[in-house]
Amino acid sequence: MPRSFSLRASFRRPKHSVVSLVVDDVDIREDVAGVESFAPWSSVVSFFATDRLIGINPSSGQAARVSVRNLDANSSDTAALVAQLESRGIPRTMVSRGSSHAA
Prior knowledge:
alpha+beta
């Protein structure tokens, strides 16, 4: 008989996994430890940005959270990402204190 197991949240993602977020004219792609997901721009419903965190929220509910302090030196400027989101007319929302899950 098949069995299903679930890991606690703290075990689901290795602490030092490499996460890649690629934003282009077609979509947003996120790669976490070799597993790629994507969201076309038409599915992005909102975003938020603080001095420490940027969140991109597609209609699927599988949000991309980017911790600014974890970006490497080769990353694009976060201000450019915010500008791109705003230029596409994606609404900026406020972030609640509890929304701190980040890559």
